[in-house]
């Protein structure tokens, strides 16, 4: 009996007790389950409990040979037992066949027919018989109360979704969610997950976000928080995206390298580069983020945008050890000269040129020239600017700086002559 009850519970069908057969609950008179039939069904169940479903089904087949002598209720119970035993051993198609024979019997208790129809809808759905599932749901709805309808709308939505009829599926699941919400209740998690999937298939990103918002509030799970952040990103609602990611981070949901990097990038997009740098720094120190060129470069860029210039210079030097050395050192050199770190800028420019593979080597000669201008070594500055002018990318700037250096050199010489005179 335990096996049968378990199967009944799994399919959502009411478990009919052999000790207390279901009585009629309708106007049409339902015949009784006679003692001799009851005892035979009990024998089949005992065989199934003790020897397995195959033994129980063998006894049921013996009983079925005398089905013509049974009344409608007894035959319904016989087919019901067949259905559950076949379901319990994974033969869904046979289970559907026998449960279908249950509802064909007339008259039978309304509650038996109603619960069997709902189970048939569930089984047909699980077996890929989506239109058949919808037909069973229609029959069940004709017998159901208004309060019971939401669960059938969910079944309809599942079948329609599997049938790729997404618009109708959305209408069905929306009714279920709205009805539950109007009753001041919380929609079930799987309902919201289904609605999210339907909105996704319809390319309705705002709808996906709305379902994820409910999932975050009512069924807080890491994946829902992170998915919601991602959807806000798609909607270009970066402030909301950041708020959700920060909340997820506080709850310990940011764990993978991709998630850490994403958090840093969203900080950066929201013009919070210092926080972006801190996330990268923490990720590197905890060995969550790989110590590679991409992460080090982003770390340096974040520090630069945060105006942490000396830290950014150091970060670019660290990045240079991991690849693209010339360009990373060039960035560091540019930062150094912009912040009046002349000796450091000169060394970094030389190191960058030595590393090679620069997109525009002329820029480093410009940096060197500007260092010499700052040091009032104008002859050396002019040499560097002349070299920078040999590269098309830096020619205009080099010529402008050359004119300035020449004017300063001339002024310096004039001062020297005036002293001599």
* Number of contiguous helices: 22
Beta-strand proportion: under 5%
Spell the H/E element sequence: HHHHHHHHHHHHHHHHHHHHHH
Largest sheet: none
Radius of gyration (Å): 39 Å
SS-based structural class? mainly alpha
What is the tally of beta strands? 0
Q: Per the principal axes of the C-alpha atoms, what is the gross shape?
A: rod-shaped
Catalogue the unreliable spans. 1-27
Helix content: over 70%
Distance between the termini: 122 Å
Taking all residues together, what is the mean pLDDT? Answer: 91
Describe the structure.
- The structure is a single chain.
- The protein is mainly alpha-helical and 421 residues long.
- Helices cover 74% and strands 0% of the residues.
- The chain has helices at 2-11, 35-51, 53-64, 72-88, 92-104, 110-126, 130-141, 149-162, 166-182, 189-201, 205-218, 222-234, 238-250, 257-269, 273-285, 293-305, 309-320, 325-338, 342-355, 362-374, 378-388, 395-420.
- Helix 5 runs antiparallel to helix 6 (110-126), helix 6 packs antiparallel against helix 7 and helix 8 runs antiparallel to helix 9.
- It is rod-shaped and about 140 Å long.
- The termini are far apart.
- The model is unreliable at 1-27 (pLDDT under 50).
């Amino acid at each position: 009996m335990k096996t049968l009850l378990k199967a009944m519970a799994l399919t959502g069908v009411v478990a009919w007790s052999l000790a207390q057969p279901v009585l009629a609950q309708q106007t049409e008179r339902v015949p009784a389950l006679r003692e001799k039939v009851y005892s035979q069904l009990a024998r089949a169940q005992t065989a199934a409990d003790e020897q397995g479903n195959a033994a129980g089904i063998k006894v049921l087949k013996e009983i079925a040979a005398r089905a013509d002598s049974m009344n409608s209720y007894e035959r319904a119970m016989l087919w019901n037992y067949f259905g559950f035993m076949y379901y319990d051993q994974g033969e869904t198609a046979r289970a559907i066949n026998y449960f279908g024979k249950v509802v064909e019997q007339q008259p039978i208790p309304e509650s038996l027919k109603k619960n069997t129809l709902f189970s048939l809808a569930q089984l047909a759905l699980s077996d890929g018989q989506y239109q058949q599932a919808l037909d069973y749901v229609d029959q069940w709805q004709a017998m159901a109360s208004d309060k019971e309808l939401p669960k059938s709308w969910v079944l309809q939505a599942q079948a329609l979704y599997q049938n790729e009829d997404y618009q109708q599926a959305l209408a069905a699941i929306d009714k279920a969610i709205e009805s539950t919400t109007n009753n001041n209740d919380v929609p079930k998690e799987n309902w919201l997950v289904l609605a999210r999937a339907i909105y996704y298939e319809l390319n309705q990103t705002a709808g996906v976000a709305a379902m994820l918002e409910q999932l975050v509030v009512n069924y807080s799970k890491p994946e829902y928080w992170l998915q919601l952040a991602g959807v806000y990103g798609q909607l270009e609602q970066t402030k909301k995206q950041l708020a959700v990611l920060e909340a997820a981070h506080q709850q310990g949901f940011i764990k993978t390298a991709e998630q850490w990097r994403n958090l840093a990038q969203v900080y950066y997009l929201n013009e919070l580069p210092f926080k972006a740098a801190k996330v990268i720094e923490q990720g590197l120190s905890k060995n969550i983020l790989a110590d590679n060129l991409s992460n080090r470069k982003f770390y340096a860029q974040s520090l630069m945008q945060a105006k942490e210039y000396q830290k950014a210079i150091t970060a670019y030097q660290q990045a240079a050890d991991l690849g693209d050395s010339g360009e990373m050192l060039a960035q560091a050199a540019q930062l150094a000269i912009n912040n009046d770190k002349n000796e450091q800028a000169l060394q970094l420019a030389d190191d960058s040129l030595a590393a090679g593979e620069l997109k525009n080597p002329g820029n480093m000669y410009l940096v060197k020239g500007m260092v010499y201008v700052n040091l009032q070594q104008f002859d050396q500055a002019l040499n560097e600017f002349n070299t920078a002018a040999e590269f098309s990318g830096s020619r205009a700037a080099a010529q402008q700086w050359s004119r300035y250096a020449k004017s300063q050199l001339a002024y310096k010489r004039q001062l020297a002559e005036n002293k001599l005179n």
